[in-house]
Design goal:
Elements: E1 4-8, E2 13-17, E3 22-24, H1 27-32, E4 60-66, E5 69-74, E6 79-83, H2 84-91, E7 112-114, H3 115-120, H4 123-135, E8 137-141, H5 149-157, E9 160-161, E10 169-171, E11 187-190, E12 202-210, E13 217-221, H6 222-232, H7 234-242, E14 244-250, E15 255-261, E16 263-265, E17 271-274, E18 281-282, H8 288-305, E19 312-314, E20 321-325, E21 329-333, E22 343-350, H9 353-365, H10 370-375
Parallel strand pairs: 7-8
Antiparallel strand pairs: 1-2, 2-3, 4-5, 5-6, 8-20, 9-22, 10-22, 11-21, 12-20, 12-22, 13-19, 13-21, 14-15, 14-18, 16-17
Helix pairs in contact: 4-9, 6-7, 6-8, 7-8
Length: 379
């Protein structure tokens, strides 16, 4: 059953009905969403009045339903026409974004696109954005191999977030470097920088040179793995979602520390992401029995993350770029021998809001069928 608005004109009641619940819509909530141009600026869509100044005892004085439109009168004297589609869009939990879909290495998603048409915008850009938001990852081919190209791609999808590693960082084999990412050793599945507040939302890696036979890139969908762990061990899953773990990074110029659960859930208990880096974490102080259960759950999570059923492996060739949600998709790398040849990647971070914003804008600009127009939120 879909979400819909139920109108009872005789009783003066408007109810939001969901699959498993219903709630009467408050006159205060409805009045806040007054769409008239003297109440809400039609260009910015920003409110022209302060809703906190509305009277506490505001009431509906009249309701008239006309198809997709409600004409509502309020006790403060205001009367306006409200779109039920707009009201439903306002309560949608996804904010107008596609639902995430879990994937595995056995059934990987279609996430590879050519950069030139994506860069040109239009349908190809929208398709890439939708794939990213659905799967948490896209791979782009046919990008220039000039250093700094990654910043052009990053700017197309969002806004670069600078850290102590710079606007971009060089991923090459360097002895005595300040992070194991800059050594030829294998890196297990992990999320980057869980010691920051906030954690970088999206990571981008661009291959400029790869003359080695090793160094395969690895990706794992944290959504799929977390669902598997929850099905196996619900109590352990709950522990990883509630007990904060310390994450620490330090070199001669910077030191970062943050505490957060390994599994991140939103206020409704819905999966938001994973913060996982065995090279950097510090377990919490727990009583021995709880610590044993926590350790068991964390170990099982690590086993699932490296299970070939979930871990996707592929070479990243020069001119290829991978962009992934650092709060959902864990990444890693197999070891490589630097004596075989050069291996040079550049990386950077952008915030999660960039692709989300671009997707909403591209959806507004995309041509819609008449059926699609009817389903769209009306301003």
């Amino acid at each position: 059953m879909s979400t819909f608005i139920q109108v009872d004109e005789a009783a003066g009641r408007i109810t939001l009905v969901r699959e498993d619940s219903s709630v009467e819509l408050s006159p205060l909530w409805l009045r806040e969403r007054s769409p008239d141009p003297d109440q809400c600026d039609p260009v910015t869509r920003q409110r022209l009045f302060d809703p906190h100044r509305l009277p506490d005892d505001l009431a509906l004085t009249s309701i008239r339903s006309d198809g997709d439109t409600l004409e509502l009168g309020f006790s403060d004297g205001y009367c306006g026409r409200f779109s039920t589609a707009a009201l439903l869009a306002d309560v949608a939990a996804d904010g107008g974004l596609p639902d995430p879909v879990a994937w595995t290495a056995e059934q990987p998603p279609a996430f590879t696109f050519d950069w030139p048409p994506v860069r040109a915008g239009g349908p190809a850009f929208l398709e890439a954005l939708e794939a990213f938001l659905t799967n948490g990852v896209v791979k782009l081919r046919k990008t220039p191999v000039e250093p700094g190209t990654i910043l052009d791609v990053a700017g197309h999808f969002g806004w670069v977030r600078e850290t102590n590693f710079g606007r971009l960082f060089e991923v090459t084999s360097r002895p005595a470097s300040n992070d194991l990412a800059y050594r030829p050793v294998p890196l297990g599945p992990h999320t980057d920088n869980p010691y920051r507040e906030p954690v970088p939302g999206i990571q981008i890696l661009h291959c400029l040179v790869n003359e080695t036979s090793g160094g395969l890139s690895t990706l794992v969908d944290g959504l799929a793995v977390s669902e598997a762990l929850k099905a196996e061990d619900a109590d352990g899953y709950a522990l990883l979602a509630t007990e904060p773990v310390g994450f620490h990074f330090a070199d001669v110029e910077a030191e970062h520390y943050a505490r957060r659960p390994i599994i991140h859930l939103d206020r409704d208990g819905v999966f938001e992401g994973i913060h996982y880096s065995p090279r950097l974490d510090r377990t919490p102080v727990l009583d021995p029995a709880t610590m044993k259960r926590f350790h068991h759950a964390r170990r099982r999570l690590g086993e699932l993350l490296t299970d070939p059923r979930y871990e996707l492996r592929f070479p990243l060739h020069p001119g290829e770029l991978v962009m992934f949600d650092n709060n959902r998709v864990l990444h890693g790398r197999t070891g490589f021998d630097p004596s075989e040849g050069a291996r040079h990647l550049q990386g950077c971070y952008i915030d999660r809001e960039g692709p989300r914003s671009h997707y909403r804008v591209q959806r507004r600009r995309a041509p819609q069928t008449e059926e699609g127009k009817a389903d769209r939120c009306k301003p």
